[in-house]
Amino acid sequence: MSTRSRLPWPDAAPVLPVEPLRGVLEAFSSLALRHPEDVTLLPPLVDEDGNADESADPPPALEQIVEEFGGIEVRGRVRLNLLTDDRTDLGPYTLLGDPTTFYPLIEGDDVAVILTIDEDGAPGAVYGIGEDLSLTLAARSLGHFLERYLHALTETLEGLDAEAERASAGAGDSGEAGNGVGAGKTAAPDRSAAPDGAPTRTESAVELMKAHMLSSILGLLPEEERAAVPIESVADSGFEADDLPEGTVAVADLRDVDGDASVHVMDSDLPGDPLECRIAFSHGGLVVSIVDEEAGEE
Questions:
Q1: pTM for the predicted model, two decimal places
Q2: Phi then psi for 200, rounded to 5 degrees?
């Protein structure tokens, strides 16, 4: 089920300041200016005339950031969106709990990237959710995730330009680049077209973004290349029950693990059907709890 109604976001947490992210946001703007055919900035929450996008419903803690930066899109295919206006509990969100405990940043076919939100409304860690409903730690904060996304996007654009240069050089070597323009001159290469059988620039952009980031955080790598974090019972985890969400029956602790480590909920040895449990986040989003909602109500 999806909804456009405004959520009862918790708002006790302070608003994240935009100034520490200024360099990253300016770098995104610079890439969009230098690569207008590849990169599009999404509108922020508030436009130049001071009018707000009433359909968007971001967590209050993101207010300063989204007033200036709505997200960024690559070739119309890969979209980082900080102003999601349509929420659902289906697909990759099947195991997640209350919609105020997370906020989608990237959405694809049966995959997603989410920002965790704690009970006070404070943003925490960022996770990728795979088709198998596994969670992969993408970053410990929104700021770190934006930096990582910027790096992946920069590498992708450099790769696209390198591919275009190789294609142009190959056309020149075959004597096709002149195209009747004139002696000693060549036509500007079509940066979106591709030779027969070769991927288009858009297809290449998607593959490069996967290679530089998305595959590792969306569970697209081979199983042997994915580091797994064990799911333990509360008794074995070292946590006191009071330190975990109510109804927690198992825990995965990612506080001391490296990025891109995954929690495989569906493959874990849990009492009952994993699909009947829900995931909750605590400790800055770095502790993943498997919650039996019925147990929490007893």
A1: 0.88
A2: -75, 170
Give the 3-state DSSP-derived string for 134-153, with helices as H, strands as E and coil as C. Answer: CEEEEECCHHHHHHHHHHHH
Residue 260: C-alpha distances to residues 16, 39, 127, 164, 233 (Å): 24, 26, 9, 31, 22
Backbone dihedral angles phi then psi of residue 62, each to the nearest 5 degrees:
-95, 5
Mean pLDDT for the chain overall: 87
State the Cα–Cα distance between residues 289 and 93, nearest whole angstrom: 15
Contact 113, 126 (CB under 8 A): yes
Q: What is the largest CA-CA distance in the chain?
A: 84
> Nearest to residue 87, comparing CAs of 152, 4, 182?
4
Distances (CA, A) of 33 to 26, 36, 83: 11, 6, 21
DSSP conformation letters of 187-225 = PPP-SS---TTSPPHHHHHHHHHIIIIIHHHTT-S-GGG
99-111 pLDDT, tens digit each: 999 999 999 989 9
Q: Distance between CA 67 and CA 218 in Å, rounded? A: 28
Q: Which residues pair with 113 in a beta bridge?
A: 106, 128
From the CB of residue 169, how many other CB atoms can be counted at a distance below 10 Å? 12
- Phi, psi values for residue 242, rounded to 5°: -70, -15
Phi-psi region of 153 (alpha: psi -120 to 50; beta: other; left: phi over 0): alpha
Cβ atoms of residues 105 and 82 within 8 Å:
yes
CA atoms within 13 Å, Cβ hemisphere of 159: 19
Roughly how many angstroms between the first and final C-alpha of the chain, as a whole number? 27
- The token duo for 295 is 């147990």
For the stretch 18-58, pLDDT in tens is 999 999 999 999 999 999 999 999 999 988 878 888 889 99
Please give the single-letter amino acid code of residue 113.
V
